[in-house]
Amino acid sequence: EVVAVQLAEVRPPEEVSAEFSAAQSAASDRDRRKREAEETAARIAAESRAEAVRVTDAARAKSSEREAVASAKAARFGTILTAFRSEPELTRRRLYLETLETLFESVSRKLVIGPGEPVDLGLDAPR
């Protein structure tokens, strides 16, 4: 009956020693490359999940912002409509003046002329 076998030192035969070492080196290299690939895949997956969360959060924020702006515009329209129904001429005049005020803010040069005065815009001037 054999109870135990213990090998003190195991070496491949001298004729295949170089090939055996190359095979062990290749297996070790394969395992190392596999670990590196798995680490890279895990890193890229984590970065992708983080980017997806960032994009989703940004989209939700933009959506909320647009919803708030639309609600404010709708409320303003409702207020103007109520005012128009009670005082149509006054509301029309106020909207006209507010529009002119907004327009004048964006114009750098303004020229005020009296009624019936000719206007020369200089469009026919040579360049």
Task: Tag the structure with descriptive keywords.
127 residues, mainly alpha, 70% helix
Strand content: under 5%
Distance between the termini: 116 Å
| Mean pLDDT rating | 91
The helix/strand class is: mainly alpha
What composes the largest sheet?
none
Please give the radius of gyration in angstroms: 41 Å
Please, could you describe this protein's structure?
It is built from two helices and no strands. The protein has 127 residues and is mostly helical. The radius of gyration is 41 Å and the shape is elongated.
Which SSEs are present, and which pair or pack?
Elements (H helix, E strand, L loop, with lengths): L16 H70 L1 H19 L21
In short:
This protein has 127 residues and is mainly α. The chain has helices spanning 17-86, 88-106.
